[in-house]
Amino acid sequence: MNQIMKFQSQLLNWYDLHGRKNLPWQVDDSYLVWISEIMLQQTQVLKVIDYFNAFISEFPNMKLLAQADINDVLALWSGLGYYNRARNIHKTAQICVQEHNAILPLDLKKLMALPGIGQTTAGAILSLASNLPFAILDGNVKRVMSRVYRVGEIKLSEYTNKLWQLAEQNISKQRPKNYNQALMDLGSLVCVRSKPRCHECPLNTLCQAYQVNETELYPPKKTKTKQIAVTLHALLVIKDEKILLRKRGETGIWAGLWFLPEFIGKKSSNLLHSIKHVLSHRILTINVYKNKELVDKIQDCHWVALSDLKKFAHPSALVKIINAVDLKY
Ligand code: SF4
Fold first, then answer.
1. What's the CATH code, domain 228-324?
2. pLDDT for 237-256, tens place per residue?
3. Do 182 and 167 form a contact (C-beta atoms < 8 A)?
4. What CATH number should be reported for the domain whose range is 3-217?
């Protein structure tokens, strides 16, 4: 048996015993696989499950999603972050209805031409929903491949190309669906970022980094994205179980989401609370005030019943603030 066959069979044997098989999107349905794959970008499986179930119960198919108001789509995304993912899902659904009979095309290039679908998502849709032999290269797969084959310390584009080459060379033609799921599961359950559980790994006899005791050197560390510190000043006004919110503009942080009305602030004795909130490129300090006299000067606000908040797309920072302050001030 050659090395690639060993890789496949050891991985698939492990999957049969230990892999995930009961996730709600593990069905032969490209719509469900697509929604889950987009949600799983930058987000852990456990967090995604509830969001996925709520989303699918509201939009069970492509046509209903395409017809939906984008605000309703964003509302179901509230708290998941990276809201462009939801906008792209909505645009893609509309394109599929107009151009592909309301289904995702069964073709790598056509899939990759749709908003928000890159090669990994396209490969996942084709392999997980239709058992076609297309590779994927998400963060978990990259980590496993870079350790097994000791791929590191080269330019980023070469590094990614090399990993794609390995991912494509190793894919099982017989069981691509299980093979890709197995690699993702191995990366998230065994070959974890720090302290990988190599002694229980099905690939440890093949893993070059493990053999030379260098697992911590792979994958190579990324240069950290510089996070810029930003301070926001916001008003918290609550009356009769309703909160005053304003829809943010179409660009910038939390574009198009509902948040507290903001103002250009100066230090104020009316400061209620200050919270830190970290985004991928920003470290926000949000100062929350109770200057009710400013309310009249702020345009375009809307009273929202606290019990209706989930119908209005909002960032998780809003819930953090509501939970942190005494609403009866
Ligand atoms: S042996 Fe260790 S480092 Fe190598 S793939 Fe398995 S868990 Fe990852």
1. 3.90.79.10
2. 888 888 999 999 888 889 88
3. no
4. 1.10.340.30
Does residue 207's CB lie within 6 angstroms of at least one atom of ligand 1?
A: yes
Quickly count: other Cβ atoms within 10 Å of residue 300's Cβ.
8
- Tell me the C-alpha distance between 258 and 117, whole Å: 26
pLDDT tens digits, residue range 164-215? 999 999 999 999 999 999 999 999 999 999 999 999 999 999 999 999 999 9
**Which of 198, 206, 211, 212 for mutating ligand 1's site (highest number of atoms within 8 Å of CB)?**
198
Please tell me if the CB atom of residue 201 comes closer than 6 angstroms to any atom of ligand 1. yes
Pairing of strands 282-289, 228-235: parallel
Whole-prediction pTM value? 0.86
Q: How far apart are CA 77 and CA 73, in angstroms?
A: 7
Which SS3 state, helix, strand or coil, does residue 256 take? Answer: coil
d(CA 150, CA 212): 10
Q: Give the start-to-end residue ranges of the domains of the chain.
A: 3-217, 228-324
